[in-house]
Amino acid sequence: MNNQQYQPNLLDVPISIFANRFAKEPEGVTTLRRIASREINRVTIEAIRDEADEVKQKNLKDNLRAFAPVALLHHRKADTPFSERIAEQWPLLMGDIDLKDNKGLNMAELKTHLCRLPYLLLCAYSVRGGLWFVIRLPDNQTPETLAAHFRYLQRVFTELFGVKLDSSKGGNPTDLRFVSFDTAPFFKEQATVMTGTYTPPKPKPASPRPLIRSHFQPAGEWELRQVVELARKAQKGDRHGPLLKAATLAGGFVSAGRLDYNTAVYALETIASELDNFRDSERAIKDGITYGEQKPLYPDTSYHETRYKPPPTPPQRSDTRQNNTWLFDGLMIHGEQLSYEPCDNYPPEWET
Question: Model pTM greater than 0.70?
Answer without folding.
Answer: no
